[in-house]
Amino acid sequence: MNLPNSITLARLLMTGIFLAAIASNTPTGLIIAFVAFLVATASDWLDGYLARKLNLVTSLGKLLDPLADKILVAAAFIVFTGKGLCPAWITAVIIGREFLVTGLRQIAVEKGVVIAADNLGKWKTTLQLAFSITALLYLNAPNLQFIQPTSLLFKSLLYLALILTVLSGINYLKQSSSLLLDTPPKS
Questions:
Q1: Domains of the chain, earliest start first
Q2: Confidence category of residue 184, pLDDT binned at 50, 70, 90
Q3: Average pLDDT, whole number, for the chain?
Q4: Can you spell out the DSSP letters for the chain?
Q5: Is-contact 2 53, C-beta < 8 A?
Q6: Which end of the chain is more exposed for a tag (fewer CB within 10 A), N or C?
Q7: What does the pLDDT read at residue 182?
């Protein structure tokens, strides 16, 4: 297994550590969860950078990298919903979009088409991660005024992540509409 794929697998491990630590609901656990999430987020950039720079892009990496991202984001939003920091419907939209895009990509692959990640999707992920980091910072330092769940920063990051999630999902639907409307040949 090459280095970028190993880093991606480490991100999955960090997601497990994040979940176990945050479930402890202790001050130490919250700090560990925050650090694990930051490491996982940084590894997302690092594995992609190294795969391209070292010419180590593999089919396994193409599968694992977005899967690791989706698992990390879904886990975080489920936790935040459980802690009252994100409405359940927003978490459902975010996870639903991920299932939709994964399904669209599977249909495309079966038809020999690649649906590449676009800038809108990358910005969506960036805002989801930024919200997640802000929510984790709040859980670790609830007295900081600028990151309160009622603050402009907190709400802006959450709703911008939601808007970009929806727009990105619509964009993927548009990109794949010809694949979805394609009717099978008659026998």
A1: 3-181 (1.20.120.1760)
A2: low
A3: 91
A4: --HHHHHHHHHHHHHHHHHHHHHH-SHHHHHHHHHHHHHHHHHHHHHHHHHHHTT---HHHHHHHHHHHHHHHHHHHHHHHHTTSS-HHHHHHHHHHHHHHHHHHHHHHHTT------HHHHHHHHHHHHHHHHHHHHHH-TT-GGGSTTSHHHHHHHHHHHHHHHHHHHHHHHHHHHHHHPPPPP-
A5: no
A6: C
A7: 67
Indicate if the pLDDT at residue 185 is higher than 60: no
CA–CA separation, 106 and 112 (whole Å): 10
Full-model pTM: 0.90
Q: Give CA torsion, residues 174, 176, 178, 181, to 10 deg.
A: -100
CA distance 146 to 144: 6
- Whether the pLDDT of residue 17 is over 60: the answer is yes
How many CB atoms are closer than 10 A to CB 86?
A: 23
- CA nearest 51: which of 60, 13, 15? 60
Crossing angle of helices 119-140 and 152-181, rounded to 10°: 150
Residue 23 CA to residue 20 CA, distance in Å, equals 5
